[in-house]
Design goal:
Blueprint: E1 4-6, E2 10-14, E3 19-24, E4 29-34, E5 38-40, E6 46-49, H1 57-62, E7 66-68, H2 73-88, E8 92-97, H3 125-138, E9 145-150, H4 160-174, E10 179-185, H5 192-201, E11 204-207
Helix pairs in contact: 3-4
The structure holds iron/sulfur cluster.
Iron/sulfur cluster (SF4) binds next to loops.
Length: 211
């Protein structure tokens, strides 16, 4: 007969005298448990789960709340993260700062502390050509490529976007690579035209502040 243990990656939150919410940080599943199912030590710490009359053992296993006693979860999590790291690293990307300038002056902004932020200009055509060439060298056959526009406020120079993206897209097409565009913006310069064009170009758009 298989023996099980509680996952060491469970987090327990006492709801009231009858219920405990349990969140498993590997599977990211949250569920409500009856308190009397658990065994506690003298310090009140959960040390086990009474599975004797439990009819949902397979569900608890599937959701990661319990695991086979022989499984070393630390090793398991290393394998999961090594796999994710490997997969993530298959996808190349480039973060582009068109300028450090911004039309906002947020108190928490770390960019304005940058020594070059006050004198920052916009990326010029010569640099853009070099960046596009560099992007091409990073694109790999049949693998997704990510372009992240960051700042400063990238939409201060929205005019650069379409041409820039078009060129990188043509390189991606040649290598059968899907292009994903991400923009982090404060959204102040949004117009209907810009939003519509971004919605067709971008995979994700982070609006850091909107006034
Ligand atoms: S909008 Fe972003 S870049 Fe601009 S000042 Fe605020 S935090 Fe900094």
């Amino acid at each position: 007969m298989k023996r099980y243990k509680l996952s060491r990656y469970n987090l327990y939150f006492s709801i009231n005298s009858n219920y405990i919410a349990v969140f498993n940080s590997i599977t990211q599943v949250l569920s409500l448990f009856i308190k009397k199912w658990f065994f506690f030590n003298s310090a009140g710490k959960i040390i086990g789960l009474d599975l004797s009359n439990c009819k949902i053992e397979s569900l608890l296993l599937e959701k990661g709340f319990i695991t086979d006693e022989k499984i070393d979860e630390e090793e398991l999590i290393k394998v999961i993260y090594e796999d994710r790291y490997f997969l993530l690293n298959q996808e190349a990307g480039l973060t582009i700062i068109l300028t450090f300038q911004c039309n906002f002056d947020c108190c928490y902004c770390y960019q304005r502390e940058s020594p070059i932020s006050s004198t920052s200009k916009f990326m010029n055509d010569e640099v853009i050509i070099k960046v596009v060439k560099f992007a091409n060298s990073l694109i790999q056959e049949n693998l997704p490529f990510h372009l992240n526009f960051f700042g400063g406020e990238p939409l201060l120079k929205y005019g650069i976007f379409p041409g820039f993206i078009e060129k990188v897209k043509s390189f991606c097409d040649k290598k059968h690579s899907s292009l994903f565009i991400h923009v982090t913006t404060n959204g102040y310069n949004f117009t209907e035209r810009i939003v519509n064009s971004l919605l067709t170009l971008c995979k994700t758009m982070f609006v850091s502040q909107f006034r």
